[in-house]
Write a structure and sequence with these properties.
With 497 residues, the protein is an alpha/beta fold. 58% of the residues lie in helices and 8% in strands. A hairpin with a 7-residue loop joins β7 (268-272) and β8 (280-282).
Length: 497
């Protein structure tokens, strides 16, 4: 979504880094570039004006101008101001102690309210809640059918009532939740293609009738400057508590989303990064600002890894350290990588990842994983356990069985070899850590768990993607030491959490 903005800002920072000492003219030129980048991204012009003024004032401080690394200080200031623009701190969904809690969604038609309601229900269900969806959009054709279909996919019931009176449906949904022991009711209201009095009054009537604990406005990230008028009107009439930004994975400029918090003063609570039910994420201003500036979101990767972690993955990590890396392990890692959102999404969350994607044309073909999976499934059990036993004849047979070429099989075996070497380095590191503990304590230390359970192949993901026209992680430094440093840093973050 913010690729163009990210590229423009990073180009500006690169020009500043090329100067040993910054002058006022350099800062003025940089602020002009940042202003143009934000305006081209469709950020509201008043928001841009305030943002650039505050940033320029801080950058002209003597401590910045006279420091040894002025360009880095400018980047830090822009980051701080961007975090402030997005909301400073994470704003979590606050639910009361009453049963049921009521969450009401409002917004224009086409903003993604219905899918947002389902995604929110899925998220709450994962947290141990028992949600009920209320279909209060009685105007859009098949809106209730869509909600019921999507609710059925995630195992959440949908209340439709008489299908004619939105306020009555909302009230009856509350009683239904009490009868069925459901502790959260999510009310999906009707929208229009543009703001009109009937829609606004209906939203006000529903709010007055059910007294929701939270009113959330769903905003389409692809909406341009008009987003300011829309959110301002909804804030005035419904006094919503927070915002859900949908379609943040799209390719529009996305500047409207950056304007919401500054215009309304209301926090962004969630962002939707895809179509699947699990694509709704709690919004973090700090992490979003870092992603916009190309600094990545390693914490987000760790959180996804923690969700995937289980006893089996921990045992598998220890076995790989002990016995080595097999083709079965590689197949499991590729499948888990898909579950975590795919290589493109994870690459975009790494420092410098968005710029790498831009250099690769904004996309890369992830079908290589399907091809690799076909080749691995064409191997015998013995070959998967001992890939080094695969000779020329076996490679030709595997290629025929998977609809690939011997060159493709060679490339897969090369990737396996590199990842197996990495496991060897990790095993050596674990042994060194264990020896160090023995030396300090004079006795056998506790076995260190160096592997990243539930985080398959992240230390050297580029090797798995080697068949995609070069290693897109090359800019991160492809050495084993760099991989180990990255793993250590990420493991420490997981421990601190």
């Amino acid at each position: 979504m913010f690729n163009n903005l990210s590229d423009r800002l990073n180009d500006t920072f690169d020009r500043l880094r090329g100067k040993g000492k910054l002058t006022e003219a350099d800062i003025t030129s940089a602020m002009r570039d940042i202003r143009m980048a934000l305006l081209e991204a469709d950020v509201n012009f008043k928001v841009v004006k305030d943002f650039v003024a505050k940033t320029r004032e801080r950058c002209l401080n003597a401590e910045v101008m006279d420091s040894l690394t002025p360009a880095q200080n400018v980047v830090k200031i822009v980051l701080d101001e961007l975090v402030e623009l997005l909301g400073s701190t994470e704003s979590k969904l606050v639910l009361s102690s009453r049963i049921p809690n009521v969450i009401m969604l409002v917004g224009l038609q086409g903003s993604g309210k219905t899918t947002a309601a389902v995604k929110l229900a899925y998220l709450l269900k994962k947290q141990g809640r028992s949600p009920l969806l209320a279909a209060c959009d009685v105007y859009r054709p098949a809106a209730a059918d869509q909600l019921e279909t999507l609710g059925g996919e995630i195992g959440v019931p949908v209340f439709r009532g008489d299908g004619a009176h939105p306020v009555q449906i909302a009230q009856d949904a509350i009683r239904e939740a009490v009868d069925r022991m459901r502790d959260v009711v999510i009310v999906d209201t009707a929208g229009r293609l543009q703001i009109d009095e009937q829609m606004m009054q209906e939203a006000v009537d529903i709010k007055r009738a059910v007294k929701p604990d939270q009113v959330l406005m769903v905003v389409d990230a692809m909406t341009g400057q008009d987003i300011v008028n829309v959110v301002s009107t909804f804030a005035e009439r419904t006094d919503f508590d927070g915002v859900i930004i949908s379609k943040l994975d799209g390719d529009a400029r996305g500047g409207g989303a950056l304007s919401v918090r500054a215009v309304t003063g209301k926090p962004i609570k969630f962002v939707s990064m895809g179509e699947k039910p699990d694509s709704l994420e709690v919004f973090s201003p700090d992490r979003m600002a870092k992603r916009i500036l190309g600094m990545g979101d390693v914490v987000g990767i760790i959180e996804k890894a923690q969700e995937m972690a289980d006893a089996e993955s921990i045992e598998a990590a220890e076995r790989m350290l002990r016995d080595g890396f097999t083709m079965n392990d590689m197949l499991d890692q590729m499948r888990q990588l898909k579950k975590m959102g795919g290589a493109k999404k994870l690459l975009g969350m790494l420092p410098g990842g968005q710029r790498m994607l831009s250099q690769m044309g904004g996309d890369f073909d992830e079908s290589v994983f399907d091809k690799n999976e076909a080749m691995i499934l064409s191997m015998t059990k013995a070959e998967r356990l001992r890939p080094s036993s695969i000779n020329g004849q076996r490679r030709a047979r595997i290629a025929r069985g998977s609809g690939t070429t011997p060159a493709d099989v060679n490339q897969l075996l090369k990737q396996w070899g590199e990842m197996n070497k990495m496991m060897g380095r990790m095993k050596s590191m674990a042994q060194q850590a264990q020896a160090g503990k023995r030396g300090k304590k004079g006795k056998k230390g506790k076995r260190g768990r160096v592997g990243m359970p539930g985080m398959p192949g992240m230390g050297n993901l580029g090797q798995m993607m080697g068949g995609m026209g070069g290693n897109p992680f090359g800019a991160m430094g492809g050495s084993g030491n760099a991989d180990m440093d990255m793993l250590r840093a990420m493991e420490q973050q997981m421990k601190r959490r």
